[in-house]
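Co-fold these.
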Amino acid sequence: MDARDPLDAIDRRLILATQDGLPLARDPWAVVGEQVGIGADEVRARLQAMLERGVVRRIGAVPNHYALGVVANGMSVWDVADAVIDAAGERIGALPFVTHCYRRPRALPDWPYNLFAMVHGRTRDEVLAHVGKIRALLDAEHPGALAASDVLFSSAILKKTGLRLRN
Amino acid sequence: MRERSAAAADLDAIDRRLINSLQGGFPLSERPYAEVGAGIGLDEDEVLRRIGRLLADGVLSRFGPMFQIERAGGAFCLAAMEVPEADWARVVEQVNRRPEIAHNYRREHHLNMWFVLATGHPDDIGRCAREIETETGHAVRLFPKEREYFVGMKLEV
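Predicted complex below.
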């Protein structure tokens, strides 16, 4: 596959056919293949190739946190010394209650934070307890590296559709 | 939300096993639902029936491939706006109707609207942000990702 054009027209059709979800049929690949105009075996081979290239992160279910009672979510943001941020980010990302963890550029003067860790919990207090564990981990492993932090609680989901490529 | 939380209480042990097993890699085999069922003691039709019910009840918000569009030439970018209360409803509508907005959350901060832009090409991120600024009259701050340490669900039920 050409590295400059990693998505060919068929892959693109495959994304369009599956971005809303996989068919609930005994042979879902045949159903998708019919929409895309390829056989079930080619659907499987292309999805396998996209998994290997990382175009598909994984195939599976996304549980609705809210339906499962995990209704509190806080975006914790941290100003961590550049020298240790990658080591700290790897450790924080591995914590069981962190679902997303990224390094992003600071946006000074009013946004000093360079590490973002999304934390989920059943209540705000549980989220705050998790955030306290992140702080304790940073203090223990990188004393003095943390300059500031904040938690931005979500008060409403305004939209949640995920990726939608246009035709 | 109360009704939806009730749905969580209705999950039986088999639903929980099924949800946990579906968070890993779904098999790319000829009969993937049969394979999933074999791992947790369910037959294929029961797996299909239960996944359908969990989706209909909103316990699962999605079931299928999760795309990492950066690997296919596209881009994701976190963005935030400071929206005055008086303009809130109008700006929510203006932002949300764009297909590039993958999700959008209200957060308790002076930057009170946080959304993710997903586009087929990296150049479209800046273009979309500028269009939103022009349309809404408020600045869009972009927080591009420099490095990803972890993305995943890890939601054991």
